[in-house]
Amino acid sequence: MTVDEQRTVGIEPLTFDQVLEQVKQEWEQSQKELKEVEILIRQSSAEVEKLAQRNTQVANKIHQMEGILETIPRQDIMEMYSAAQDAQMRLFMMRGQMEQLQGKQEFLERHIALLHQVLEAAGQTGIGGDIIGVGSQEAPGEGSSIVRVINAQESERQHLARRMHDGPAQSLTNLMLQAEICERLFDKDPVRARTELTNLKESLNATFQEVREFIFDLRPMMLDDLGLNATLKRYVQDFQEKSGLACNLTATGREQRMPTHTEVTVFRVIQGLLSNVHQHANATYVNISLDLTSDILTASVEDDGCGFDMAEAMSNARQRKALGIIAMIDQVKMLGGEIHFDSSPGRGTMVHLHLPI
Fold this sequence. Notes:
68% of the residues lie in helices and 11% in strands. By secondary structure, it is of the alpha+beta class. The two termini are 18 Å apart.
C-alpha cells in the first residue's frame, strides 16, 4: 500500500524513526524470548539426562528378569514392562522438546542478528554493539508468548504420553504375555495354544491400528509428503467417522506447498478447533474451509453447537492454565497471522484464520 493509499483509508504512514523504534522493540522482545528458550533448554537438558539414566536402570532390571521369567508372578512382569514403556516414552517426549527448543533458539539467533544488522546500518548501535535506547531485559514469566506456547506443547506431550501408556504400551505388554503363554502351551496343550495364537493375532491387529492412529495424531507423515490439503482431507474423514459429526471440507485456490512451519501450524489449529467442537460444543455439524487464492491463507471452522463467551473462556483458560486457545492465538501471531473467534452462548462458533504464505 502506497503512502497516498494509506492516507486515503485513514492510516497515517510511519516515519523512519517510528520504524526504527519498532525494530528496536522487536529486537528487545526477541532477546527476551531467546533468554527464556535458553533457560528452558538447560532445564530440559538436565531432565533428559535424568530420564536417560532411569531408562538404563529399567532396561538392566528387565534384562535380569528375563533370565528367571518363569519364577516371577505375571503381575510383576506386567508392571516391569509398563515401567520400561513409561521410561522410554518420557525420554522420547523430552528429547523431542529439546529438539524443538533448539530449533527455536537457532531461529531467534538468526532473527536477532538480522535486526542487529538493520539497526547497525541505521547507526543505532553503540559501543560494543549495544542497541541505543533499549532497556534491560525482563525475566521470563508465565505471561510471555514463548512460555505459553511451550507450556501448551508440553501439556500436549503429557496428554500423548498418557494415551501411549494407557493404549499401545499397555497393549504391547499384554501381547508379550500372550506370546509367553503360547510358547509354554505348545508342548502341553496344542489346541489351546492355537486358540491363544488366534487371540494374539486379533490383539496384534487391533494394536497395530491403534498405533497407526496414534502416529497420525502425533505427526501425520502425509503432511510432509502430500501437503496440507490432502492431510486435512484425510483427517476430516477420520474425524467424522470417530466423532459422528457431519463434516464438510471445502478447499479452494491452487494447491501449493508452503513452508513446513506454516502447514504444521494450520493443521494443528484446525485439529485443535475440531477437537474443541467434539468435546465441548454439542454440535451436529461442522464446516471447514481452506482458501489459497491469494498470498494470504484463509481458513475457517464453523459449527452449530452451543457456543461460548470468549472473554469468559479466555479467563477460565488462564486460571486453569489450559492453554489450547491461547496457544493457538500465540502461534498464529508469531507467524504474522491473525485468528478471530466469533461465538456467543446458544448460536455456535465461527473461527477465522488468516496467515501470510
